[in-house]
């Protein structure tokens, strides 16, 4: 299997060379497919040539048909039939080999692409749309498979076939041969003139960008279906999607209009080229009207010209498809060009799990998110991070999990800079539950076991109990399938399953990102009970971003973050005494607890 490194090493090649580079894994199979295609291309012209020989035979004995050599006629007929059968066998074998090679190449490229995506920092996925990623993984890789499976054999078949027939043309009569070749060259030059314009590559880029945009808008449309239904909107009233579809339609129509004149001229020249040799034929026949050889020669060119129409049209189609494939490969290469987070050469593992931030600063591109954040948390302590939205709370968790690398400063676990730990080692010592719960389309058991694939059912049930999922398990059972045709859990229920997954993973560090922000009271209470249980019955280091200050009652320490800065750090009581911002936050929260509904 070709590795990601090998794929990256060949990125300096472009066009057909790059496509062939991607195909080199199955070079032997593709060479045999190419040879069979070439043989098939030659065999395809045998029926035309045999038909010409038969016509010649009957013309030569037009005055005495009985004198025609019956064995010769039979030989020509059998040769034509045999060539057709042999050509079909060669084509079938060629495409079988090329498809075997193509599917293996597709599998390898897609697998390596997914592996590489898994190594990229989270920042890549926040700046790249789902539609763009989907198009690269699915459609652009499929284009490579289509090129290898179909276009390589077709290209060889077309080129070998055209060269063969042009060579025969020149051998039969160089004068008619030169006119034929000249006509086809003019046709190709006319058609390729539109491809040589500098704008064509930009047009293809625009075409791909529009497809990616439609993919993104379709995903957005489906994700927002509940809102669309709620406000009685239609697909056309969903402006982003409607505008993308309209822009795509306008572009494709404009591109078609632009290509129509040259394509029409190309078709006329290719399919009617015989009219270009008629003046010479008429002139020669007028000079020697009884020259039967000359008449047969003209007849030969008329009959054989039909065999050239299909190859020339294929060359036209291939040229455009290759431009599309090149653009697709370039976009795939852009993903491989994205640098993963640097990995430690000699990774280390911590022996304890204190967490230390030392002068940590971080920016999203050029936008500062954190500035000189420093604090320490001992193993087994529970920290709650509070502050206004957009202040940098969730960013702190993302940096601990190394979704991004800090711009300056360091984050240490057990005294070891997380950049000196392997990715596997770092993620092996922490679990993270996000605000937006995510469940696989699988059973409840497998969703919880995602935290530990080798866990027994007793472990799964224990984790579910600790995460306050007992009612969910009793209601549906562990084997109940989630999503599509299975059950649909509420947001709070799904979040509790996520917490059970994190508990089963049983890591020394647990990161919780506003997990109760959008939950109803019952689910919030259940999750708070789960957190309380974890806080008092384990030595896990827990860091929780809190949207609701009710979570503070579980905390050993509180960190107040505002506008990317750590305003204060300490116990709840300490912050109440010395921090005005925290006093205001807590006062607001306390007043809301006194609200009641009255008559």
Query: Terminal Cα separation, in Å?
Result: 73 Å
What's the gyration radius in Å? Answer: 36 Å
CATH topology of the largest domain: ABC transporter transmembrane region fold
Low-confidence stretches: 1-5
Number of domains: 2
Shape: elongated
The total count of strands amounts to: 10
The percent of residues in helical segments reads 55-70%
User: Largest sheet, described in full?
Assistant: 6 strands, mixed
Instruction: Give the name of the CATH superfamily of the largest domain.
Output: ABC transporter type 1, transmembrane domain
What is the CATH C level class of the largest domain, in words? Mainly Alpha
Strand order of the largest sheet: 6-7-8-3-9-10
Strand content: 5-15%
Oligomer: single chain
Overall residue-averaged pLDDT value: 80
> Count of helical segments?
22
**Structural class of the helix and strand makeup?**
alpha/beta
Query: Which architecture of the largest domain does the CATH hierarchy give at level 2?
Result: Up-down Bundle
Can you tell me about this structure?
- It is a single chain.
- The chain is an alpha/beta fold.
- The chain folds into 2 domains: 4-337, ABC transporter transmembrane region fold, CATH 1.20.1560.10; 355-592, P-loop containing nucleotide triphosphate hydrolases (Rossmann fold).
- 64% of the residues lie in helices and 10% in strands.
- It has 22 helices and 10 strands.
- It has helices at 4-9, 15-22, 27-43, 46-60, 70-119, 122-127, 130-172, 174-196, 198-223, 225-230, 239-271, 274-287, 292-337, 393-400, 423-428, 444-449, 457-466, 470-476, 491-505, 521-537, 572-578, 580-592; strands at 355-364, 367-377, 382-386, 408-413, 416-417, 430-433, 509-513, 541-545, 557-562, 565-570.
- The strands form 2 sheets. The protein has a 6-stranded mixed β-sheet with strand order 6-7-8-3-9-10, with helices on both faces. Strands 2-1-4-5 form a 4-stranded antiparallel β-sheet, with helices on one face.
- Strand 9 and strand 10 form a beta hairpin.
- The longest helix has 50 residues, at 70-119.
- It is elongated.
- The chain starts with a helix and ends in a 7-residue tail after the last helix.
- Residues 1-5 have low confidence and may be disordered.
């Amino acid at each position: 299997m070709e590795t990601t490194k090998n794929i990256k090493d060949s990125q300096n090649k472009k066009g057909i060379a790059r496509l062939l580079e991607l195909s080199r894994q199955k070079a032997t199979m593709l060479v045999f497919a190419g040879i069979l295609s070439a043989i098939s291309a030659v065999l395809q012209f045998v029926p035309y040539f045999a038909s010409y020989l038969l016509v010649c035979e009957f013309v030569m004995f037009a005055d005495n048909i009985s004198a025609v050599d019956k064995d010769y006629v039979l030989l020509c007929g059998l040769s034509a039939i045999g060539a057709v059968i042999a050509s079909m066998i060669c084509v079938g074998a060629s495409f079988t080999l090329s498809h075997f090679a193509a599917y293996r190449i597709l599998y390898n490229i897609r697998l390596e692409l997914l592996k590489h995506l898994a190594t990229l920092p989270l920042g890549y996925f926040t700046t790249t749309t789902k539609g763009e990623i989907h198009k690269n993984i699915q459609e652009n890789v499929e284009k490579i498979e289509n090129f290898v499976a179909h276009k390589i054999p077709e290209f060889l078949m077309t080129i070998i076939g055209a060269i063969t027939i042009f060579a025969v043309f020149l051998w039969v009569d160089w004068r008619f041969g030169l006119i034929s070749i000249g006509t086809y060259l003019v046709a190709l030059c006319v058609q390729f003139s539109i491809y040589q314009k500098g704008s064509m590559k930009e047009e293809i880029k625009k075409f791909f960008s529009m497809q990616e945009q439609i993919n993104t808008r379709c995903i957005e449309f489906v994700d927002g279906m509940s809102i669309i239904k709620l406000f009685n909107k239609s697909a056309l009233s969903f402006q982003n999607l409607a505008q993308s579809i309209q822009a795509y339609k306008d572009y494709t129509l404009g591109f078609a209009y632009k290509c129509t004149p040259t394509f029409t001229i190309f078709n006329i020249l290719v399919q009617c080229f015989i009219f270009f040799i008629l003046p010479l034929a008429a002139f020669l026949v007028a000079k020697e009207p009884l020259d039967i050889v000359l008449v047969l020669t003209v007849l030969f060119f008329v009959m054989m010209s039909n065999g050239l129409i299909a190859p020339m049209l294929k060359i036209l189609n291939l040229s455009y498809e290759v431009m599309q494939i090149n653009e697709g490969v370039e976009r795939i290469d852009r993903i491989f060009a994205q640098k993963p987070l640097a990995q430690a050469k000699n990774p280390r593992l911590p022996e304890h799990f204190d967490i230390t931030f030392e002068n940590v600063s971080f920016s999203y591109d050029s936008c500062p998110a954190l500035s000189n954040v420093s604090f320490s948390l001992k193993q087994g302590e529970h920290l709650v991070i509070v502050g206004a939205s957009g202040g940098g709370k969730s960013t702190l968790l993302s940096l601990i999990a190394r979704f991004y690398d800090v711009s300056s400063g360091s984050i240490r676990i057990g005294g070891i800079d997380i950049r000196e730990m392997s990715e596997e080692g770092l993620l092996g010592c922490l679990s993270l539950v996000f605000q937006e719960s995510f469940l696989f389309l699988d059973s409840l058991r497998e969703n919880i076991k995602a935290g530990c694939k080798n866990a027994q059912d007793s472990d799964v049930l224990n984790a579910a109990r600790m995460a306050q999922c007992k009612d969910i398990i009793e209601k549906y059972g562990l084997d109940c399938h989630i999503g599509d045709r299975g059950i649909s859990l509420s947001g709070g229920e799904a979040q509790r399953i996520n917490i059970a997954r994190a508990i089963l993973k049983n890591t020394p560090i647990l990161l919780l990102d506003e997990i109760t922000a959008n939950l109803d009271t019952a689910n919030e209470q259940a999750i708070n009970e789960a957190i309380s249980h974890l806080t008092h019955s384990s030595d896990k280091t827990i860091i929780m971003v809190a949207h609701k200050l009710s979570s503070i009652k579980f905390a050993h320490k509180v960190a107040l973050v505002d506008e990317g800065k750590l305003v204060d750090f300490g116990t709840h009581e300490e912050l109440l005494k010395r921090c005005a911002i925290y006093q205001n936050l807590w006062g607001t929260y306390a007043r809301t607890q006194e609200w009641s509904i009255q008559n």
